[in-house]
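Run log, item B.
One chain of 302 residues. Sequence copied directly from the ordering sheet:
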Amino acid sequence: MRDFIEDNEGWLYAVAAYDNDERVGCVLRYIPAEAGERVNRSGHRFTKLDFEQAYTLIAEEKPEYLDMLHRVPVSDVRRVLKPEEEFPRIVADDERVRELQTLLDLPFGAAGCTGSLLLGLDTDSSDIDLVVYGKKWFEVQERLSRRMREGRIRGLSEEMWRRVYEKRKPEINFESFIVHEQRKWNRGEIGGTYFDLLYTRPYETLCDAPSERGKVLGKMTIVARVIDASLSFDSPAIYRVEHEKVNIILSFTHTYSGQARIGEVIEACGVCESHGDEIWLIVGTTREARGEYIESLSLLEK
């Protein structure tokens, strides 16, 4: 998760799943192109693809990879780029990341950058996608909240919040979106650049990550109490709930990660699946999660 892979043709994919033993779950992001607008450190040009372009190209050129995610056979993977391994190089090259590393005491070996910075395909307008693994993430989150309160790191401006909201296109209104986001302490600005603080499981817990789809039971809206939110910042975000039918809510869209805390009452709308003796409510069954959402009613009542 958060790694990138390169296939035998030099196509670059963002790894978006934990179950990657035989086929890597990922999304195509960049392809080599003579007139590409992105240039790596070796001078090779690439074009960045949006999700629709990526899925169309995979369907046309590599249909054997097509699934809910793109599934690249391990035998077709030429190179793996890992955020924690490339982090020292990025810190040395990028003044903004170097400042964040100092301010947040980002731990080498347990933190890194993903996205265009990892690939060396960033531009002056590129966001910074920080990755921190396991329990260290919560320590960094606490330091980020402290640095923001001290004024040493800026929170997002109204304009930047609007930009994030328009990019994510959530089903909740802007006021609710802001109320939920501002207590997550996982976003900020440095040197005029937007950055994200992304959670990723440590390697020793990967075997516990949900991977397979269940039997679809239909769409449902529920009100439930959260009894475990320890993996609410994971991808997918996981909320174990107290409800007469649903046991777990999973969000596959980053918008609803960290959306609720333990003990809070939430309203969630998504698609129910049967998984053994449990019923899971899935939020984010499409890329933009149309008609699907999670809101903390407890938070909104405050």
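Observations after the first pass:
- The chain has a mean pLDDT of 93.
- The two ends are 35 Å apart (CA to CA).
Flagged for discussion on Thursday.
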